[in-house]
Amino acid sequence: xxxxxxxxxxxxxxxxxxxxxxxQSFTLKEVLELALKNSPALAIAETHTDSAYYQYLxxxxxxxxxxxxxxxxxxxxxxxxxxxxxxxxxxxxNQVLPTAxxxxxxxxxxxxMDEGGNCIQNPSLNLSISQPLFVNGKIIDSQLFHGAxxxxxxxHTIAKxxxxxxxxxxxxxxxxxxxxxxxxxxxxALLEKRCNLLSKxxxxxxxxxxxxxxxxxxxxxxELNISLIEKDIIEQRFLLxxxxxxxxxxxxxxxxxxDLVFSEEIPAISPEEIVEEVVLLRLMEEHNxxxxxxxxxxxxxxxxxxxxxxxxxxxxxxxxxxxxxHPENYQGSESISGSFSDLFSAGSTYSLNGSIxxxxxxxxxRQRRYQERIDRNREFIAQQNLExxxxxxxxxxxxxxxxYESLNEELEIHEKYVTINQLRIQEAERMxxxxxxxxxxxxxxxxxxxxxxxxLWHTKAEIFISVCxxxxxxxxxxxxxxxxxFQFFR
Length: 490
Fold this sequence. Notes:
With 490 residues, this protein is an alpha+beta fold. It has 10 helices and 14 strands. Helices cover 58% and strands 20% of the residues.
């Protein structure tokens, strides 16, 4: 069974590299904070999330009741073409139903002043319900009640996932640039030491040649090696400058910032807790950003299909109205307040009218079939995208595990090389004291140790980057957890 290493929380330690007072030294934590603060890409992602959230709130407001109040005079012309002024007041409510239907309710009262100055009230109540019955051959369900709001909620969730993924991408890119810069600095320092050592060896060969014991071919070979190393130093410095420029752009700094200096923090991994690969694969399936986006897109496609199918659904219509009727020979009241009691006076009656209707879209059958085919195709594409993403991410995660295991084996090899060369240095120091080897040969052994120490340092950094990449694939927030999973030391 493959296993993956997760480490225990150890506090973060800061150890700046001594340098010139004019140079600004950054720890990894400071670089990450600066990148997340200044990144334009992350600012855009945050804006998208904010917009999606307010779009969600806007859609949620559509399920709240819509209440309207109205009041105002209007005029009627009687048979004698004389004009009387009336007053109308109404309140109406429109509400989306949990069954994806709609309800409209209205109360209206019209008050008329007759020729005798009496107030006549005419109240009425109207209620109507519209309910779709079938969508795509299925009985309507309550999910359409929150359909528009649900799609907006999914869009907001996708925006949050993309924002987190962008944040993790920036963090990983900064970590890669950070350790690449540090490694190139170490490589340049090692090349310079090799160049100095070859210069001493060249001086020694020139001295032997003056004494008649030197070899021209050996001198030329050393000079060629020095030239090659100097060429490598120039190339490494050029690459180093590019890395600093890339990091400066991520940090949104002005200029090339060749004065950037970083503390040589090496992530230390301690086997305190072991998590099986299958556990992280399950976490990846549940929380991987790309897989989550595909799942949500599939759900969004299904809801959108139901919403669009409602346009071609049969509609059940229910309506009723209640009208007040005054008794015969009614003369009205002399005041508006008195007219309210007339609504319940003897002889007053109320009439109830109701109707039931069914609308069946007859000439939209072809459009409905086309729409259903389009919806099935969209759902099929979304499902295939989900399965493809799951397969790709699983394969990618397995490759990352293989890379992680390979790096751990490489780490053991470099540790053995370091141990061997440390023992060789101890032997060389004893032999140098006895005159068995020259100081130049002893310095070559120390340089070989330095090379393996650099390789060991680089492998540790690669393991750290590999672990961060794996954790990001499980949806982990690297910003919150990165310094809780590793300790850093020089």
